[in-house]
Write a structure and sequence with these properties.
By secondary structure, this protein is α+β, with helices and mostly antiparallel strands. It folds into two domains: 32 residues; 148 residues, Beta Barrel (Lipocalin). It has one helix and eleven strands; from the N terminus they run αβββββββββββ. Strands 1-2-3-4-5-6-7-9-10-11 form a ten-stranded antiparallel barrel.
Length: 188
């Protein structure tokens, strides 16, 4: 009986391996289907004039943003420059659609602190809503406090986008306006 057990275990392992090999292409093919989120963001490709406003609507700075598809259209990359605390810093944002969880994720990396923030969310009607609450990539306030952020992205036209940001210091129980970013397509 002991002599047959390894054969049975080996057969089981072989069968599981074979099953995994058979299903992996199916899962990969499922992931390659229509990018349900990114197709709705294709209008973002191009060069944009961006004006940043604080939580009270006061203009803070203006900059330019370049947005392009990368990885054969599987992600959108945005590169821009921000100004805060008297300094200038670069931002790289990557937006991608997760076909398994059916969410759009956005990673934001800044050159000032090297902080990588991860937002996720979905479209609600025509508005993309995202938050970093579930990812836990909060910003610190230097005193042990945690700032979480959420945002909405609304397409007003092919040449005008509005991003609104809100912050929370209490883990998402309450939210306060943190800023607004008006994107106007360059040359329009």
């Amino acid at each position: 009986m002991l002599a047959k057990q390894p054969t049975s275990i080996l057969q089981t392992i072989a069968a599981l391996t074979f099953a995994c090999l058979l299903t992996t292409p199916l899962v990969a093919d499922e992931a390659k289907t229509e990018p349900k989120g990114l197709d709705r963001l294709a209008y973002m490709v191009g060069t944009w004039d961006v004006t940043a406003y604080d939580q009270n609507g006061k203009e803070q700075y203006s900059t330019t943003s370049e947005i392009r598809f990368i990885f054969d259209g599987k992600a959108l990359e945005e590169r821009t420059t921000g100004f805060w605390g008297g300094g200038e810093w670069d931002l790289i944002m990557i937006r991608a659609y997760d076909p398994f969880q059916q969410k759009i994720r956005m990673s934001v990396l800044d050159s000032w602190l090297g902080h990588l923030d991860i937002y996720e969310g979905q479209f609600e009607g025509e508005v993309l809503r995202q938050s970093n609450l579930d990812s836990g990539t909060y910003a610190g306030d230097g005193q042990g406090g945690k700032f979480f952020f959420r945002g909405t992205q609304e397409k007003l036209s092919d040449d005008h986008i509005v991003l609104r940001a809100e912050s929370s210091k209490d883990g998402g129980a309450t939210w306060q306006a943190a800023g607004r970013y008006e994107y106007l397509r360059k040359g329009k």
